[in-house]
Design brief:
By secondary structure, this protein is α+β, with helices and mostly antiparallel strands. Helices cover 31% and strands 13% of the residues.
Length: 172
């Protein structure tokens, strides 16, 4: 994508990578390097819990600078101290086998995005990043149209926090 190997990733993408790693790690005997969305010590812990051997934090460095590494390291150390872990291997892969298999995940669409008109600045970011053509322009603001699948990406990234996920009317 975008003329190179980089794609549709970033801080919002962590859940996709976590899912793939928790399924893959128990089935392979090779090191797994996690990437996509790690920006805190808590994110690194999540990746290690699902079985990653190491975690890439490139996006966090691009967004916050190299200083972020000390904050990430401190968060990881705090978690380990709180839980009594001395080594990463003490908790690496600990949640494997406890996460629902994909076929058991409820995939019904229970929520959709909703935009508070008073907070919307009309920046258009929601429309540019939407994978499902949910946001539609209405004058100088945006509204959520019928294409919304409730993924939450727009709500996560909306600069003025004008978007929230709300229950879908009429079922799934």
């Amino acid at each position: 994508m975008h003329g190179g190997f980089a794609g549709h990733g970033g801080l919002w993408a962590i859940h996709y990578a976590l899912r793939w790693i928790v399924v893959t790690a128990p089935a392979v005997r090779i090191p797994i390097s996690a990437s996509g969305g790690a920006a805190s010590g808590e994110d690194v812990v999540k990746y290690l819990l699902v079985g990653a051997n190491n975690v890439q934090v490139c996006t966090a460095i691009y967004v916050e600078g190299f200083e972020v590494l000390q904050r990430i390291k401190a968060g990881l150390e705090e978690f380990m101290a709180r839980k009594g872990y001395e080594r990463l291997d003490d908790f690496r892969g600990k949640v494997c086998g406890t996460v629902l298999p994909m076929q058991e995940v409820d995939r019904s669409f229970k929520v959709v995005a909703a935009i508070e008109a008073e907070k919307c600045t009309g920046c258009g970011l929601c429309q540019r990043i939407c994978l499902f053509d949910g946001p539609e322009p209405q004058g100088q603001k945006y509204v959520i149209g019928p294409g919304c699948r409730g993924c939450g990406l727009c709500a996560e990234l909306c600069p003025p926090r004008a978007i929230a996920l709300v229950p879908r009317r009429g079922g799934s």
